[in-house]
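Q: Give me a backbone?
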Amino acid sequence: MSIGFTIHPRPRKVDDATVARFKAIAVANISDSMNRMAHGGPRLRPLHAGGVLAGAALTVRQRPGDNLMVHAALNRAGPGDVLVVDAGGDLTNAIMGELMLAHAQQIGVAGVIVNGAVRDSGWIRANALPVFAAGITHRGPYKNGPGEVNATIALDGMVIRPGDLIVGDDDGVVCVPIEQADEVYAAASRKQAGEADTMAAIKAGTVDRSWVERALRDAGCEGV
């Protein structure tokens, strides 16, 4: 085995029904339901025309500035996969651009996340393929390796295992471990329903904000 230069099998993968359910849940509500302990970092911003990202993680750990193993992952990607690339957050070289992203879109990839830079931002902005990245640069990548496909990676502390659920929207991206998906969905759905009720009360002018004063008193704030 070549350490750090391996294509691993993906032993499991979140099912399509679970992915479909999470498309209707805001990332912020998913995050809150996971005790705000999971996040992909504030630098991973959506660059595409708009729309929700949801699918099963196909992970890549790639040497900064190189995209050979991203190409290897694309050759193994299928419909509904989310290509999650950890390129160390380096912005010196773009890891993906229009040609690779167009191919990903054509084969049904659900979206792309690059902890690093991309290029051809005009194409990305004009297309619905969800693309999240840490930055943009015109300078292209090398193709020498090493790297790994379907390895466990971490983006700003958020651990992502191959096949885990990935969800992204305008607020960023979050990973939901497969074994926690049902529990998180139930909690996030309740939170989203509660927020809908609060918004209705705000619009009606009947929202109750007495909890703020109670919290101040309970915390010992003077002058309440």
